[in-house]
Amino acid sequence: MIRKDYLIAIEEQFEVHPICAILGPRQVGKTTLAHAYVEKNFNTDDAQFFDLENPIDLLRLENPMLALTQIKAKLIIIDEIQRSPDLFPILRVIVDRKDNTKKFLILGSASRDLIKQSSETLAGRIGYIELPPFALYEVKDSKRLWNRGGFPLSYLASSDSKSYLWRHSYIRTFLERDIPALGFSIPPEQIRRFWLMLSHYHGQIFNASEIGRSLGISNHTAQRYLDILAGTFMIRILVPWYENLHKRQVKSPKIYFRDSGILNALVGIIDEKHAYNWPKIGVFWEGYALEEVIRTLHAQPEECYFWATQADAELDLLIIKNGKRIGFEFKYSDKPSPTKSMHIALKDLSLHGLIIVYPGNEIFPITDNLIVCGLDAIANGKFNQTGITF
After folding, report:
1. Spacing of C-alpha 365 from chain mean position
2. How far, in Å, CA of 291 to CA of 31, rounded?
3. What Å distances lie between residue 30 and 49, 156, 206, 261, 268, CA to CA?
4. Residues of the chain predicted below pLDDT 70
5. Three-class secondary structure assignment of the chain
6. Which domains, ranges and CATH numbers included, belong to the chain?
């Protein structure tokens, strides 16, 4: 499946920057997207591909300045860039030359926070695109996506059992190979226990002290493990929004698993039948729906917050975009209804509107600025029909 939105995003980045970075978890389709971009825009001889996990390509780049400057190709693709961060200063020198006409498409399995050297060395020269797993607006099958998650080989597997086996293998490889490859010396079983512990905090306030005590690790270590999982696109850290109110507000972040299929595999949910019997099904769906809304509305991390007070008024998701504030509450219910907390959020946060998202496809108003909207409706491009838009 060609992800056309991201092909367009690459083209837009290259209109502004000589270097474009596609970042996302392993096996999400970054290499496939890069090849699709080449096929659409270049002749075969005009693009050169380097895979930094391939010993032959590493040998070709033993003298990177010489190798990259002598290549005649118009586009150079470097995959798994996080394995060789020493390439970033060399790329800066190359693209800063007055006679340079080359474009660089670099692919990485770690975030900008983990590949700090890229943002520091290439500031003003590089544009970033985050490639997540399949989103609901791309695949349309909500039940399948919620169960299997959006990693292509999981979502497209021929059966639920094969999808589940693939995700189990992915988790093991991620813990045993991918995290050490980023330079972190953590026993795989220890971070697996931490990751599993996080499943109990999915959609809740992260408490490093509590988790640390449970696992026999320090607060600092618990925070470090969380940062690693966030930096490898496994966990979303949703930070709180502070409003200038005479109310005590929550200051710790919430955490969410970014892929529902990985969460399901980690806790042992094999298929749809298991999911519906799961005691935390509501919390799991609400986290899945939150992630899908963020992806569908193309909200950036710095635009996304939650809000809560010590008096139990709260808002699951606050997106601040284009000068507007829109709130979202997620309810795993066929008949969602407004709450006192929603009305408090509307008033205290001066929201342009509040959307109650539920598992359905209908849209109907409760008041002018309080609208019930099905997740499927948002994914099918009907968000504008709520009358509350960015």
Report:
1. 30
2. 23
3. 13, 16, 30, 19, 28
4. 114, 116-119, 246
5. CCCHHHHHHHHHHHCCCCEEEEECCCCCCHHHHHHHHHHHHCCHHHEEEEECCCHHHHHHCCCHHHHHHHCCCCEEEEECHHHCCCHHHHHHHHHHCCCCCCEEEEEECCCCCCCHHHHHHCCCCEEEEECCCCCHHHHCCHHHHHHHCCCHHHHCCCCHHHHHHHHHHHHHHHHHHHHHHCCCCCCHHHHHHHHHHHHHHECEECCHHHHHHHHCCCHHHHHHHHHHHHHCCCEEEECECCCCCCCCECCCCEEEECCHHHHHHHHCCCCHHHHHCCCCHHHHHHHHHHHHHHHHCCCCHHHEEEEEECCCCEEEEEEEECCEEEEEEECCCCCCCCCHHHHHHHHHCCCCEEEEEECCCCEEEEECCEEEEEHHHHHCCCHHHHCCCC
6. 4-130 (3.40.50.300), 137-386 (1.10.10.10)
pLDDT of residue 96: 95
Residues in the chain: 390
| Radius of gyration of the CA atoms of the chain, in A | 22
- What is the reported pTM? 0.93
Give pLDDT tens digits for 316-331: 999 999 999 999 999 9
